[in-house]
Structures are given as C-alpha cells and as structure tokens.
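Render this sequence as a predicted structure.
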Amino acid sequence: MKIFNKKIPKLFIGIVFTLLLLLVAVQFWEYLPYQQTAARQIKRMLQDYNLEVTSLDLLRLNKSELIIDNIHLGKNAEFKIGKLRVDYALPRINSVNLEDITTQIYQKDQSFVIAGLEDLATGGEGTANQKYFPQSMHIKNMNISSQQADWSVVAKLDADFVQKAKDHWQGKIIAPKLILASKDNTLPTLQVMTDITWLNNIISADISAYNQQKTYQLNMQLVVPLQKPNTGNISLQKMQFPWGGGIISLKKVMIPLKSTKPVQLDILLERVDLAQLFLLLGEGKVKATGSISGLLPIIYYPDGKVTLQQGTAAALSAGIISISPDLLPGENAQLQMARKTLENFHYTKLNISVSSNQQNKSTIQLKLEGKNPDAFEGRLVNLNVNLTGDILSLIQQSILPLNDFKKILQLKGNP
C-alpha cells in the first residue's frame, strides 16, 4: 500500500508549468484588445491538465505580471482561489502569490483526493524538474477541511516557499487554527508550524503543534525521499497530552512509514489520577484516591495491532483504595480476609504491574502495603491482588492517538 502521495510534487509542477505556458502566451495575447480571448486560452491550457474551470476572471496579463481572480475548479467549483498573481521576467518566474484558497480533501478508494483536482494530469514520472518553479511562492488564507469516517480536520494556513539554489527549496507553513476531532476525542484548537526543506528530491518537515495552554505538544520530523517515499520515516521528538488528570507522553522514537517490523513505543504516565484510571478499567468496582506515575511499553505492529509489554507504575503518595468483593472470587479463608481488608484499604505503598498475553488479554497486578482501620485491629499487611481489565483498548482509544496518525499516513495518495 502506498504511503506518500507522489502526485503532490507532480501536481505542483503541473500547475507551475501551466503558468509558464501562460507567460509564453503573453507575447501573443497582450496585444489583443479582448481579455476574454486571453481568458479562453488560459482555460484551454488548464483543461489540457484535466482541470475543469467553472470560473476565471483575467484582470491583467502583460510582460511582467499576470493577475487572475475568482478561479473555480471542479464541476461544482470545489477548489477555489480568490486571487492569483504571478510576477516574472521571461523566461524566469519570480514569484507566485495565491490568496483566499478553499478546498476539501476526501477519501475515495483508499486514497486521499483533493476536491476539484481529482482528474489532474501532470504527465511524466520520476524526479521533479524544478526549472519550472518560481523563485518564491506565497499562500495567504488557505482553508482546508476534511471529513472522514473516524476523524475530521479543519485548518487555516499561510505558507511561504523560497528557492535557495538548484534542487533546494525552503518553506514555512503556519496554521494558527487547526481543529482535529475523532469519533472518540476532540482536541482543543491547535497552532501548527512546519518548516519544510526540499533538497535533492528529499522532503523533510519539522512539525510542531501545541494548544494555547501548551498541555498538548507535538514535535516531530517527517522525512520522505520522493523517489522512494516508502523508505521515509517519522522521528518523534516529543508528544504529550493531558489524560486522567495527569500527562501522557511518548519517549523519543523513530517510526518507519512502512515497515514489516514491529516498533516499540514507551508511554510515560505522569501524575495520572487513580480514581479516573480505575473508573475506566474497573467499571466502577475499584475506587481509589491518589495519583501514579510509570511506564507502559507497547509494541506497535505494521498491521495496527498493539500489544502491551510489562508495564509498571507507582503511587506518588499514600491514599485509599476500595475493591468490590466480586472481583476476588473464592471461598477460602485467605480470600475472605482479603475481601474484608480491601473494603477500605489505606495504603502507604501502591505498585501496579500490567501486561498482555498472546491473546491480548490484559493482566493487572496490584501490590499494596497498608491497613484497613476498620478490620483486623488495623494491622499492617502486604497484599497482592490480580485484576483483569481491557487496558489495551484503553491505550488504543484514549492514550494512543499516534495509532490514528499512522493509519492516515498509510492511506495511499491519488492513483
């Protein structure tokens, strides 16, 4: 399955190459008295790339400047550009400026498709020919939205790209407002900044995202060789978000975009509230006070399967835990004493060990030190308690958004 959309750079080249053709046409059209004639020729050139033009207002076309307003592409004008301005000194394109772009991205046959550009034909395969690129490109007020079965995104962004040398481009994309939601979670509005370098047909993007309070933070680098995009990777430097009254984060890790080997991800728990944790795991049958910190190592497989290795966590201070008797079945005297003791157990130490077996069934073991002041004269005891809980589903649904991110990356691009 393809991972990176090879057609994106070709799409870029196709549009810019079309602009180059327009500039050559300037030599002929600027002397004609009717701008409508020139506009028809521009539409015809765009149609050569299978771009259906439903609206286009040519404002200026001369030896140094091209200005077009209200460009609508697609049968229902799904791709809109409010203003396009190209500055040039033939045969060189100095700058391309685009303003007020509106578009949608949707999924079709396991592919991401840009509405209005579905049938774009750029022609040619292989390495991008940057001789047709402008010296700089500037995008202002681009609005992108996408609604998928499991997630949706709405973003507004500005972008600037500058050619530094042959086969070397640098750019910055700023999205001051990005809203990402899944069927299980809606993130707060994020600000996203991306520094992009295109050098020798390798695209690298340093991406950072955070909310206003900085409780959500993401720093990563995406590297994609254009000729072999499946050999690219994600270098995750920092990822954290609030969960369970505390913070969940991932240790630094390198994740191949496509790999046949599993990847280990280490999830760090910081000051997670026990009451909220056991509410999700124990279905209300375990109640506790206090907070824990620890480490949950998981193995992420290429097919999306997740398994949990031996994870540990410990309470940061003393607290109280109460476990429903029906979670400790059995009739021997030792179990009866344990059930009574755990009705109101004041712990001084609490350690949790979690793991999963080959059938992905989770085991949770509690090691407790403390006493029940209402039973057995308040004697100090040590207890080991084994519980069951669907902690893997909890990880996948609540504290592993990277799982969805990988699914998004693994969708192939336009065929």
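Summary. The chain has six helices and 23 strands. The first strand starts at residue 53 and ends at 61.
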